[in-house]
Design a protein that fits this description.
This protein has 257 residues and is an alpha/beta fold. It is 32% helix and 18% strand. The strands form 2 sheets. Strands 1-9-8-5-2-3 form a 6-stranded parallel β-sheet. It is globular, with a radius of gyration of 17 Å. Bound molecules: 6-phosphogluconic acid. 6-phosphogluconic acid (6PG) binds next to strand 4.
């Protein structure tokens, strides 16, 4: 809990602009230090605004896009050109509008059967880890959160604990009529990240946000509580509506604009 930082913005636009600035600042800093920036993207409607902002100046022209390696925290099992594909969404909203290197895109193959997609992505991650015997460490992980508390495709009833050693899993989740068959990274990988940025907006998320910040909430019910990076930072960017059920002293301290 200690390394969780909350920032509350007046609306989704302000939140997304701040997220784009954070992405830019952190990418520049990481590329200067290590030559590349590894980011895991998310799906959902909240992050769409960030993607649009990144596809426009100044970010479109200023970010060293060719030094960024793109991954996904989860994927819906649909082909890449399907309107519900998380990869397809990011591609359409910003990746085709910025000068990335196609060989730096590590997508989950949603067009495959779930176990094949899991194996394919696990193998990609293994190859990147090389002989280090561990999984690659992401510099930044973007995550949304559902009103039921799910993150990536780890749903409250997803069996995760039993599979705690596996980096990639197939799950099933019914949420807002979206495709239910999913492939997701697990806390094994997420918790190695250097920074995790949650983007959560709208009043429908207010109850889940309150639970995630309440003492005694159970990670089985609120999967965001499984995110406890060993050495990384966690930043929660909320809009006022999503933060409305947090205790007033927390809101007062976290208010940014
Ligand atoms: C997905 C996501 C998922 C998403 C949340 C929040 O593939 O659906 O990765 O975890 O981030 O459902 O979605 P919204 O931003 O649309 O509320």
């Amino acid at each position: 809990m200690e390394n969780r930082d909350i920032r509350i913005f007046s609306n989704l636009k302000a939140l997304s602009t701040a997220a784009a600035q954070e992405f830019f600042r952190y990418a520049k800093e990481t590329i200067a230090a290590r030559g590349e920036f590894r980011v895991a993207l998310t799906g959902g409607s909240t992050v769409a605004r960030l993607y649009q902002i990144l596809s426009n100046p100044p970010f479109q022209t200023e970010i060293p896009w060719d030094k960024i390696l793109f991954f996904w925290g989860d994927e819906r099992l649909v082909p890449p050109d399907h309107p519900e594909s998380n990869y397809g969404q990011a591609l359409k909203l910003f990746l085709i509008q910025v000068p990335i290197k196609t060989e730096n895109v590590y997508r989950i193959q949603g067009e495959l059967a779930s176990q094949e997609a899991v194996e394919g992505y696990t193998n990609q991650l293994q190859r990147l880890a090389g002989s280090s015997g561990t999984w690659p460490r992401f510099d930044l992980v973007l995550l949304g959160m559902g009103s039921d508390g799910h993150i990536a495709s780890i749903f409250p009833d997803s069996i995760i604990e039993e599979d705690d050693r596996l980096p990639v899993l197939a799950t099933i989740g019914n949420y807002e009529g979206r495709p239910g068959r999913r492939v997701t990274l697990t806390p094994v990988i997420f918790n190695m990240a250097r920074q995790i940025l949650f983007l959560v907006a709208g009043e429908s998320k207010a109850h889940a946000v309150k639970e995630v910040f309440s003492e005694g909430s159970d990670p089985k019910d609120w999967p965001a509580l499984r995110i406890k990076p060993m050495e990384g930072r966690v930043v929660w960017m909320l809009d006022e509506a999503a933060a409305i059920q947090l205790p007033e002293p927390i809101r007062a301290l976290a208010k940014v604009d």
